[in-house]
Design goal:
By secondary structure, the chain is an all-alpha fold. It has a single domain, classed as Helix Hairpins (Orthogonal Bundle), CATH 1.10.287. Helices cover about 85% and strands about 0% of the residues. The chain contains three helices and no strands. Helix 2 packs antiparallel against helix 3. The longest helix is centred in the last third of the chain and has 36 residues. It is rod-shaped and about 60 Å long. This is REM-1 domain-containing protein. It holds the Pfam family HR1. InterPro entries: HR1_rho-bd (IPR011072), HR1_rpt_sf (IPR036274).
Length: about 80
């Protein structure tokens, strides 16, 4: 997505910003899992919680990506005069 497109459509910008935040959440969870694997080999319940959080984050990312694609297609359709 280009910067100009985000500036023109606040809904697209909002979804894009949510994607950025959720990507940071995912990276944080991955880092915590890596640290857990390095330092806390026996603690399974915390690892399971983090793995579930990672699954949730991946699901949110997939949903946000889909929403962004739909909004971008809608915006493109409006630009070229197609009825949606």
């Amino acid at each position: 997505m280009d910067e100009d497109q985000r500036d023109r459509d606040p809904e697209i910008a909002s979804v894009y910003n949510q994607l950025i935040i959720e990507n940071k959440v995912k990276l944080g969870i991955q880092n915590m899992l890596q640290a857990h694997d390095t330092f806390k080999k026996g603690d399974v319940s915390n690892k399971q919680k983090m793995e579930q959080e990672l699954i949730t984050s991946n699901n949110k990312l997939a949903a946000l990506t889909k929403e962004l694609e739909i909004r971008q297609k809608l915006q493109t359709s409006k630009k070229i005069g197609l009825k949606v």
